[in-house]
Amino acid sequence: MKVYSKGRTQTLSTSFHQDLKEIKEKKLFRKLECIDSSKDSHVLINGRSFINFASNDYLNLSGHPGIVKAASSALKKYGFGSGASRLLSGTYVPHKKLEERIAAFKHTQAALVFNTGYAANTGIIPVIAGKGDLVFSDELNHASIIDGIRLSGADVMIYRHKDISHLESLLKKDTQRANVKRRLIITDTVFSMDGDIAPLSDLAKLSKQYDTVLMIDDAHGTGVLGKTGRGGLEHFGIRAGNIIQMGTLSKAAGCYGAFAAGRRDVIELLINRARSFIYSTSLPPAVVEAGIKAVEIIESGSARLRKKLWKNTNRLNDGLTNLGYDTLGSETPIVPILAGDVSTAMKIGRYLYENGVYAPAIRPPTVQEGKCRIRFTVTAGHNDEDIDFALGLMKRRL
Ligand SMILES: Cc1ncc(COP(=O)(O)O)c(C=O)c1O
After folding, report:
1. 220, 185, 221: which is closest to 204 by C-alpha?
2. Cβ(41)–Cβ(379) below 8 Å
3. What 3-state DSSP class applies to 333?
4. Whose CA is nearest to atom 5 of ligand 1?
5. Do the beta carbons of residue 89 and residue 83 sit within 8 Å?
């Protein structure tokens, strides 16, 4: 079907071409790299094996036999697609079971499963804050938080990265404002491009002091932080209380999907108002069964994996630091090295690729201009040789 006249089609293709040209001129053009297969720390790309430092499968659970078995048994029982959104016929027994498990795991009254972390943040935030409300957001928060705030229509105050005094000065300034129904402080627990950890104890204190809702995005904390992998709050010894916790099953859990965990009234409100939850087909039951198994494994059998993960993390971070690299204050398995401009970051990424290490350059808009980097992510699937190999390559300065 031809929708546009010839002239209009040409104008359109010229304008698309112009946009692409602009992206290419800035050296920001992105292409999709296709993985043939992956196992533990390695991926096969175009038939060539690489050590993978670009996966968030922190506990190396994505190929865990228990998880694979849970998914395949559920496939036999339920088929694949769920057929509808959760409020129609898309809520299966596994969805409810996963929510109960997550609530128990996160020590909250209730939980709600979303299809992705992106859908969770863009769904939850507009329910908590709306037009005339105020959101206080860390300047390095994830794009899905930024988009959630944009969708909410609330006013936003960006505080300097992890700067509690700056946040407090904004909160103080704001107390004079009338007619604000809700104030929300929102932060990544582990910042996805820097690998540092938000000062959750201070944030929790401020949120109480200024009668503000606190929401944390624990995408990279769940399964990784805390003695038993419960995430950011366990790491700091904070009770869940009124805090809204978002988390994903797509990273340390090695599965797919995300959740909100918190007070029952908040969860009920989300069921009734979160548009990404209401207007989207639910996760396939087999994916959900995989998630249930993953939460069980994290809860009861992941101490050894976490120990290995942290050992690997320290080996890489110490190694890069000893080589004189700035790892941007990383405290977690996300270990970036600052490259600066786009060309340098691309050059390092290419050099690593040519030598069998997969850790692509991270460029704007994912990071700020001038802060391009290589983001190494370490998993429990790596061994000492993998890490030492990457460190060996990084001895050369480009
Ligand atoms: C901090 C943070 N929040 C949310 C997301 C989105 O999660 P998902 O990949 O499940 O959509 C990501 C993933 O990249 C993330 O790093």
Report:
1. 185
2. yes
3. coil
4. 117
5. yes
List the structure tokens of 21.
Answer: 């040209």
Atom of ligand 1 nearest to the CA of 144: 4
Q: For residue 5, what pLDDT band results from cuts at 50, 70 and 90?
A: low
pLDDT at 181: 86
**Which residue's alpha carbon is at the smallest distance from atom 4 of ligand 1?**
117
Q: Kindly give the number of the ligand 1 atom that is closest to the alpha carbon of 249.
A: 10
Quote the CA–CA distance of 135 and 260 in Å, as a whole number: 18
Residue type, 266: V
Q: Please name the amino acid found at residue 98.
A: L
Which residue type sits at 95?
H
What is the DSSP annotation of 354-387?
HTTEE--EE-TTTS-TT-EEEEEE--TT--HHHH
CA dihedral (332, 337, 343, 347) positive or negative? negative
Residue 118 CA, ligand 1 centroid: distance in Å: 6
Mean pLDDT for the stretch of residues 294-315: 96
Q: Which residue has the tokens 């769940």?
A: 222
0.85 exceeded by the pTM? yes
Q: What is the mean pLDDT of the chain?
A: 95
Over the stretch 151-195, which tens digit does the pLDDT of each residue have? 999 999 999 999 999 999 999 987 667 678 899 999 999 999 999
Closest CA to 283 of 254, 257, 255: 257
> Residue 397: what residue type?
R
The pair of three-digit structure tokens given for residue 40, joined into one six-digit string: 């533990």
